[in-house]
Design the sequence.
């Protein structure tokens, strides 16, 4: 009769051990999930920073291109105006005294 009494004790002990093991597993799963979430957040943050930096660099590059093109346009305008003034001067010179050109 000692056997049947030990059996319920063993069962209680086994159930308690299973509950404890399940509790530890839940805690471990929660810790793993938290670490995964933290790592995911870090990765997202770094990706966002890299994307922001890439976008910033593109803006800087476009700004530099615009400045360079503006300088080129201004230089071309200045050369055009100089050429136009020179052409006007030559035209004026040619039209002022045609007889002087002949002699």
Sequence:
């Amino acid at each position: 009769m000692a056997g049947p009494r030990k059996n319920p004790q063993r069962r209680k002990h086994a159930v308690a051990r299973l509950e404890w093991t399940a509790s530890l597993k839940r805690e471990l799963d929660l810790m793993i999930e938290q670490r995964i979430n933290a790592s995911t957040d870090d990765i997202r943050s770094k990706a966002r920073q890299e994307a922001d930096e890439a976008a910033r660099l593109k803006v800087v590059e476009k700004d530099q291109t615009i400045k360079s093109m503006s300088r080129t346009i201004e230089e071309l305008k200045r050369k055009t105006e100089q050429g136009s003034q020179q052409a006007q001067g030559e035209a004026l010179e040619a039209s002022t005294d045609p007889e002087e050109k002949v002699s």
About this structure: The chain has one domain: 2-94. The first helix runs from residue 2 to 96. Residues 2-94 form one domain. The chain has a mean pLDDT of 88.
